[in-house]
Amino acid sequence: MVNVGSLDRTLRFVFGAVLALAPFLLADSFAPLGAWRFVVVAVGVVLVATAAFRICPAYMLFGIRTCAAGKA
């Protein structure tokens, strides 16, 4: 059932953490986005969650796997 490989997992975690924290740490830069900054945070949280669980629903939908076949 796992479909997220190691490199993919690392990139998801790093980019997700940046997206989740940036609106809070760089509030002045994200202020013009208004309510959209919450969408940025939500995308970051989803990326971190998919990295933690190693399961990406979008990958399942399209039949994509970035991990080795033996790890499933």
Oligomer state equals single chain
Q: Helical content, roughly?
A: 55-70%
Number of strands: 0
Count of runs of 4 or more consecutive helical residues? 4
Poorly predicted runs are none
Q: Mean pLDDT score, rounded? A: 92
How would you characterize the largest beta sheet? Answer: none
- Which H/E pattern describes the elements? HHHH
Descriptive overview:
- With 72 residues, the chain is mostly helical.
- 67% of the residues lie in helices and 0% in strands.
- It has four helices and no strands.
- Helix 1 packs antiparallel against helix 3.
- It is elongated and about 45 Å long.
- It starts with 5 loop residues before the first helix and ends in a 10-residue tail after the last helix.
- The mean pLDDT is 92.
